[in-house]
Amino acid sequence: MIFNKIENVDKADVVVVGGGTAGCAAAISCAMMGVDTLLVEKNSFLGGSCTGGQVTPMMCNRVEGNIDNSSINALIKRKLKKDGFALDDGYGNDGWFNPEMMKFVLEDFYLETGGRILYDSEIVDAEVENGKIKSIIVHNRSGLQKIEGKIFIDCTGDCELAYLSGAECFCGNKKGNSQAVSLRFMVGGVDFYKLRNFISEIGEVCILSHPLFEMASEGNLNTPLSNILKKAVDSGTLKVEDIVYFQAFAVPGMPGVLSFNCPEVSDVNIFDGKESSKTLIKCRRMIKRLFAFLKNDFPGFEDSFIISVSNMLGVRESRRLKGLYVLSEKDFQLRKKFEDGIAKTSYSIDIHGEMDEKSSGNLSMGKGEYVEIPFRCLVSADIENLLAAGRCISSTFIAQSAIRIQPTCRETGEAAGIGAAICAKENLNVQNLDGRAVRFEMENRMKKLL
Q1: How many Å separate Cα 42 from the centre of its chain?
Q2: Boundary of a domain, candidates 285, 309, 333
Q3: Which of 99, 113, 259, 420 has the greatest number of beta carbons closer than 10 A?
Q4: Three-state SS for 116?
Q5: Count of structural domains, the chain
């Protein structure tokens, strides 16, 4: 053990590990309640996949006529819109945002609440005594640093803190396979008017008005865009793997810029360092082929250029915490509601990659339908002072594919922050907290915003 050899010690009432979509919501939510909150982030910026991973726009999660079920989510979008870095597409999704400016908004918002940030710090170990996390060890420019806390929230996406603390976790489907990963990239200098005309001419429907735009295709479809991509494969310009999934979105505040939600690669073990490194190399080669094809064959891309490639793989699913309740696909089928429900989702089951589960149907939600996520899905069944939020909460593989989107991650993050603050103030174990108190606080916050 290295804990006793480390003199560089910090502490906080609540320690949030991971400053991504869920982690920022958790930290902001907790600090807003006047609790000393420390946010530990391995990158030099906040936002995780939504900023460094360039995952934009947010998928729509409209429930009962309301777009927002989280006050934190609503406030973040308001701050972005105020400066012209977010837009509503007019079709129910107001989650279009600028990923670079999101970094500034999240940092400013959190610091305004009085929270503290520790950047460039990656968790490497956890010290557990009598079923509680006593401290964690992170590595940063100071070397190894110990951080003590009363309550810990795992927002790493991969359940790193839970795993290191010995909490039981799930990973992948029944065969141990996880969803496909992506490496997103952004292209500038695109003539949207010329591109939009081309897409319309080939028979694709463009419902979004300028400056918003989207085009999408899957390799197994028989659509005008898919057929053009298939011809590029036949000619040797692209490979079959390049067109498995193809999607691009406009970015608010970035005229002439498209953010690509591809390429996509299946059967990747992200916990294998060599394999994930090979995947990054493979994806960058795929990006080179895709961009060369677009520049040469797609009207509107003649003067385009690659602005950036995501600095992280877009991981849709990996480890998941075993909580006091495991949300399942049966809960989706029943549109289940809970007394301690702290999040609502109307997003459908959405599994990427070559998975057997796809044959079971997408379990999509009809108008006015939704399922709730109970607070118990955030509570570790093994560690008395550990919560989780985001894509790594307690759920089955299939159910997780519907709750991993950003609005839902922010909902669970806000709930975890509230729960942690209550427990820190009242010296409660998280397993003894009544989730209805968290739900009540979240509902009151939304009422004040409306």
Answers
A1: 15
A2: 309
A3: 420
A4: strand
A5: 2
